[in-house]
Every structure is written in C-alpha cells, then in structure tokens.
Amino acid sequence: MKSVVFLDVDGVLNTRTTVKRTPYGYTGIDDARVKILANAFKRYGYDEIILSSDWKELDEKHMDYLYLVSKLGQCGLKISGHTPGSSRKRGKGINEYLNLHPEIEEFVILDDVTFDFGKYEKLWERLLITNGIENVRFASRTPAVEAILFLDSIKNFNIN
Ligand SMILES: [Mg+2]
After folding, report:
1. Which residues surround ligand 1, an ion (CB under 5 A)?
2. For the chain, what is the domain count?
3. Pairing of β 104-111 and β 48-51
4. Which CATH number goes with the domain that contains 10?
5. What distance in angstroms lies between residue 55's CA and the mean position of ligand 1's atoms?
6. pTM above the 0.85 mark?
7. d(CA 160, CA 134)
8. What is the largest CA-CA distance in the chain?
9. Is residue 160 situated within a structural domain?
10. Are 90 and 83 in contact (CB under 8 A)?
11. What does the pLDDT look like over 114-152, one tens digit per residue?
C-alpha cells in the first residue's frame, strides 16, 4: 500500500506576501510552511511527494529546483516524482500518474488553484485548496477520509 501527496508549490509553500526569493529571484519558500507539510506527511505515514507544480518543468540541476529540493530536505522531505504533462492540466496529469501507479491507495492533492480537478471526482474529493498551507479548505463538500485527516493535521499543527 502506498500513499502520496501531489504537491503544488506556489500558493502552498509560499504566498504573494512571501519575502524570500529563489536563487533566480522568484518567490521563495517559507520554512514554517514546509514544517507544516512535513508534520502532516509524517503523522499519517505518507510515502511519497509527487510534484504537480510548474516547478516540475525546471531542469533538476536548475538552481531553483535545487533550492526547492533543499528546502524540503531540511524537514526530511523529498520529491519522488513528477506528474506527466502540462502543469496547467493538473487533474489530467495526476489521473494519468494514478493510472500508471495502481499501487497508490491513498492520496491528497495540495493546490491553490482548482484547474481541471473538478473533471475527476476522485481527485476533487481529495483536493485541499490552500492560500498558504495553513489556510486550507476542502474543494469538495464530500471530501474523502484522507483529505479530512490531512486537513485536520494541518489545522492542529502549531507553527510556533
Ligand atoms: Mg500554485
């Protein structure tokens, strides 16, 4: 049995008010938000982070990609893979990834935008919409158990 978090970066691990910058000068990543993710990830024994963000389009040797890897690594997290296809059709990419990986039994999706997720009921029920990870809500009115547990863990984690 495998459980996976499909992760967006911008709007999850940062917000428009984030001051930090990547090596190339884009909006950086907030350590406190990575800690919240790491806490929820470990609490429920998740196995993998799969990147669905447009950050996946960076070369793995790009300084900004390495910056992301190091920020996650500081909290013991690592990226295990990327979803296929365009980062604008995220639902399609995640759906394809799930079809290629039938061993995945549980998953949640963290994203600040709904994209095409509504086309896929199974994804919609596991989508957590963020405005910074600490401001999180269900996309669906009937969220899946995984989404309920993950959201609870985020809400119960005290940043301080
Ligand atoms: Mg985003």
Report:
1. 8, 10-11, 112
2. 1
3. unpaired
4. 3.40.50
5. 10
6. yes
7. 12
8. 40
9. no
10. yes
11. 999 999 999 999 999 999 999 999 999 999 999 999 999
